[in-house]
Amino acid sequence: MNCKWISKIDERKKCHREADSSGYCIFHKENKSDEEIQLMMDTLHKEEISEFNGFVFENEFNAEEILTYNYKILDFSESIFKQKANFKKYIFKKNIIFNYTEFRDKVLFNGCVFLENCDFNRTIFSKHYINDRIFEKVKFKGPDLVVNKVENFPRMDGIIFSMCTKFVLKNVEYGKSEYEHGKINYRIARNQATKIGEYEMIGFYYYKERIYSSKIMKRSNYPTFSDYLVEKFFDQIARYTTGYGEKPWNILLVIIAIISVFALLYLFVGIESSNSTLVALDINNIGDYSLSEIFKMYMDLWYFSMATFSTVGYGDMVATSLIGKALAGIEVFFGVTIGAIWASVIIKRMIR
């Protein structure tokens, strides 16, 4: 009877080794006996296996002791490491894949050298060791390091990339207690993208870095509470208006919202047209207006609001009341400020 293991990634990939009474072979079986564990290790060496799809490693995995033979690829897809996975100081000479791999205990890559690509896709690390710096003194000389949809991905302090390595970090999120990890890892990704000139990704990494930086802002980091409030206020303004300079279309939405809100305010305050007609909504007799009349007045005032915001001021409509002038002055201030921000964001992206 063949082993009943089937890949969750590709159902066409099955194990054809002989199974025991559990229905699984010695590689895919969980809770192996000591004899079965030894048989598994002996078979690995004898057959020089390099594709460990779905293998269950019960004891500590020591790469320097086990991976002593030549291989074309190391594929640990869907593998389960129940105890420590020690790749410390190992030299990965070929591509290595950790797709859907589960590390239930500590994992170490400290001092490793990667000469080819490495993929971490939907890999699961143990949350108990998320604070460990498992990539210290790692030298990554391969073309690509991809980290995608990984759970509990540890911080990457101390990793050294070559000048040509492309580091892809995406769909990796962190909980409240690990916001610092997110900030550090996305900063490392941004620095590497800058180093190799991958300008289309710099903005994304910078945005994610700032998001996590914002989340770890603390009152204790500032001299006074007012300093903290001011910094937090402007941080939130930068986030939601420009996406920290990386989402210029957010500004366009903010501009439309401001113009629309002020147009609504002008509708109740009243604006005088060039023929001395007051364009305003009489609240006391609001029932006398049809929807089309209200819409027409609003569109006229939306036009006035847009001209005021852009500081063009054609003069065909003017604010005559004190409140109207105050609103117009405030809108002009918003227009000048946001216009300058819009220009700086666009220029920044064009230069980059």
UniProtKB/TrEMBL annotation:
Output the superkingdom of the source species: Bacteria
Q: What keywords were assigned to this record?
A: Ion channel, Ion transport, Membrane, Transmembrane, Transmembrane helix, Transport
Q: Which residues cross the membrane?
A: 249-269, 326-347
An example of a Gene Ontology BP annotation on this entry? monoatomic ion transmembrane transport
Cite the InterPro entries for this sequence.
K_chnl_dom
Kindly list any coiled-coil regions of this protein: none
Domain Potassium channel spans what residues?
297-350
- Offer one Pfam family short name for this entry: Ion_trans_2
Q: Per its record, how is this protein called by name?
A: Ion channel
Q: What is the lineage of its organism?
A: Bacteria, Bacillati, Bacillota, Clostridia, Peptostreptococcales
